[in-house]
Design brief:
Layout (H helix, E strand, L loop, with lengths): L2 H29 L2 H27 L14 H29 L7 H29 L2 H30 L4 H28 L6 H14 L5 E10 L2 E10 L5 H19 L2 E9 L8 E2 L3
Parallel strand pairs: 2-3
Antiparallel strand pairs: 1-2, 1-4
Amino acid sequence: MRPDGKLRLGWWSLAVSLLVLGLKYLAWRVSGSAALLSDAIETIINVAAAIGALWALTVASRPPDENHNYGHEKAEYLSAVMEGVLVILTAIGIAVVAWQDWWTPTPLLAPWRGVALNALGGLVNLGWGLALVRAGRQRRSPALTANGRHVISDVWTTVALVIGVSLIPITGYLRLDAIISGLVAVNVLRVGFEMTRRSIAGLMDEAPGSEMMQAARAVISETAEGALEAHDLRFRSAGSISFIDFHLVVPGEMRVQDAHVICDRIEHALRRHFGRAVIHIHVEPEDKAKQTGVPVVP
């Protein structure tokens, strides 16, 4: 997807977050439920996260410059880290609301109308969250993926709230409202820590999963005909860009031009498989072979 496509998704994410916030705010106002108030508080963070993602996507779309030779893609990880921290702070705020409601439970005003409005907001979030995660995975965008996961976690919260708040007028147990709020806080805290962990891994240049490494090895092995082996393969990602470098061993008598042709062939194949990529290949003579690298398929 072109940068303007990502930005369009960012604007839509902000608009959907504002719509859902309005629905959940009305749900709390008409019901007076502390649990629904907790859900509305979490949705405020969705709005803040959407703004952060929009900023990150704007920065990440900028081309490399003198101060950022490798581009600005890591801005998306910064956005995802900030969103994770905001989610953790939200969990603490929701826990405070739950604690207060436990000691001073109050009857609900119009629980069924509140539940209906909250459920409607949850359905909107479900559709949009799935769309964001799918787009984030396809475009390898940490900001969109983190935003989508956060929205989907909000859907599970909404499901629990709809069930729980519906039980309050049926059972007459007012403290159930505070219990539900506390459970929401625990779930939000879990999501926040997981989002932060994933984003920090990206900032620390954590290697991709074994499947991607194996795929890179297979592409090199199948397209390096004329070379002897490849070794010291390194792979990292920054947003939608992959950074791949390795050493390629060729026969000592091979001309530079022939080695260059092999390198070009490998680079084209890697980009076809992984999309946008910055690739560095260090060509070495055969006495540098390690016998433990990537073998070349004849």
